[in-house]
Amino acid sequence: MNERAKEDWKRDTTPFDRVQSVMRTAYDPMSAATVAEHALTSEQTARKHLRSLVEHGYVAETASPDSKGTLYQRASDSLALEQARRILDETDTETLSTRVLEMREELREYADRFGANSPDEAVRAHADIDTETLLEWRTTRRNLAFAEVALALSGVEDATGAAEAL
């Protein structure tokens, strides 16, 4: 990010917004100092906002491998909900239900083909499986999980909407 963009971002957003934005796009655990650097704020301010994000379930704390501090990463629950929302925004529930059934069938086919219930189990059993197939299997499992969360969320929204109509 160039200096002008940094200045604009800092002027147009709050430190909390910047910390949350950094965590939204972070794939690896980060220290408060690293978050602060990316969020253009002090470490103390970043730590304060990270604690708030932890309390609200958006961020998870984890121990540093060298045990010299706390690291922060995006909470898997918040990531799953965000992905589920995105799916619901882009897909109607009928299409999504059909796709869930298709993915479940794909997973059954992988299990039958490799004699294992998961990609990791297949690797441990030394199944003859290439890297690309392994990646596709894992991706299908992940996508199915997100799709099932989206369907569940859709059901909750439908029930809530019906209750509010009463």
From TrEMBL:
Short name of one Pfam family: DUF7342
Superkingdom of the source species: Archaea
Stored InterPro entries: DUF7342 (IPR055766), WH-like_DNA-bd_sf (IPR036388), WH_DNA-bd_sf (IPR036390)
UniProt protein name: Putative ArsR family transcriptional regulator
Provenance organism: Halarchaeum rubridurum
